[in-house]
Amino acid sequence: MTRPYDALLARAHAHALDYLHALPDRHVGATATRDELLAALRTPLSPQGEAPEAVIDLLAAQVPRGASACNSPRYFGFVIGGATPVSLAADWLVSTWDQNAGIYVISPLVAVAEEVAGEWLLDLFGLPQESGVGFVTGCQMANVTCLAAARHGVLRRVGWDVEADGLQGAPRINVVASAESHITIDVALRYLGLGTKCIQRVESDAQGRMRPDALRALLATLDGPTIVCAQAGNVNTGAFDPLREIGAACNAHGAWLHIDGAFGLWARASADPATRALIDGVELADSWATDAHKWLNVPYDCGVAMVKSRDDHRAAMTSAAAYLIQTQGVERDAVDWVPDFSRRARGVPVYANLRALGRDGTARLIDDLCARARRMADGLASEPGVRILADVVLNQVLVRFGEDDDLTRRVVVGVQEEGTCWLGGTSWQGKAAMRISVSNWATTEDDAARSVAAILKVWRQLRP
């Protein structure tokens, strides 16, 4: 008996395994130009269509040259994890089941799996178990969700229902953020109608940490509803704002404290006391945003929004319609906690990965990658003319070559073209820098050593 899925899925499976098996040795960056990819992919849409097998083969054939190996163990660009085998397998099942995970009645399995995964995350992070949890596309939408809850919460306290009455005529909200806050905070404020001009910036120190004394001084000048955005894990240095001092200042002022912990929140899962100490005081906040597709190493896309007040969280997100069959009991409708209506069951790979790793495995994942980052920094710093620009406290390494912007940028491009590893450039305190983000479960000590050797090879070729 011929089944429509069997041959095509077997073909896709074979292509997937070819890709995965080639990851450890392939050129990490993409090599094809836009014109070359257009030549392969652009064609008039045919009236009769094409054989599905040919379409799958065509796409798979372009991957080695047209896609960066983001899940390579030597991909250090941005903060991108590589999917663990169990999370990838679970994600394949998610696509196969094709569940619209918006409400419980459509998929009780997904609703319960995400409920449990949320409980596990709150436990790992040491956050209040009564907090609301929503699985979103990434930390951008996690920040939107949390700040929407914050907007609702601070206005509710002064008698304004922003969901019903909007922002026109509402009391003005003070928004405070570090000079080093991530751009997703700005974007979230734009989406929420607060705008970016409302942000009052707090000075940061040489490592990129918000100065709590400057925050206290600013809060003393503010009246009315106030939201403070702190950071766990600077995108360049990995540094943490001093959260306990910030939390105490916010609580004393009555401000809502939101923590953007896209990757840094995972320091709470570490077994290393020094790493855990970086995030001391995180529980004092009112909301937290993080990514699972970064350090938990599940497939894209998956972010997590967590809010201490379930009432504020739900009020900011929930929606209802006569045709929907929404629970009135303890069952969990995802639509109450996230901006999405129709949505992928993205919490299922989180459930699978956490269950497979356990508490100790999650800690090893974090701690091993921190150790790889430190070893890469040490290997680069031993070379004349190479300088590490900030303390390596987590998984981020900032490198500068020859104390020269142009030379540093040329080294970055040279490494990308050489292909052993891939990393990006950035600007830190007015200086060009190479940014190395060590986030992939598969990165070994050998991968780190090979990458350091490749970087230094390019540097030695380019230095004066």
Automatic annotation (TrEMBL):
Gene Ontology terms: biological process: carboxylic acid metabolic process
Cofactor(s) in the UniProt record: pyridoxal 5'-phosphate
SUPFAM superfamilies documented for this protein: PLP-dependent transferases
Alphabetized UniProt keyword annotations: Decarboxylase, Lyase, Pyridoxal phosphate
Any GO MF annotation of the entry: carboxy-lyase activity
Alphabetical list of InterPro entries matching this protein: Aromatic_deC, PyrdxlP-dep_de-COase, PyrdxlP-dep_Trfase, PyrdxlP-dep_Trfase_major, PyrdxlP-dep_Trfase_small
Domain of life the protein comes from: Bacteria
Pfam families: Pyridoxal_deC
Organism: Lysobacter dokdonensis DS-58
PANTHER family xrefs: GROUP II PYRIDOXAL-5-PHOSPHATE DECARBOXYLASE, MIP05841P
Modified residues (N6-(pyridoxal phosphate)lysine): 294
Official protein name in the record: Amino acid decarboxylase
Key word tRNA processing present: no
Protein's UniProt keywords contain Disulfide bond: no
Family: Belongs to the group II decarboxylase family.
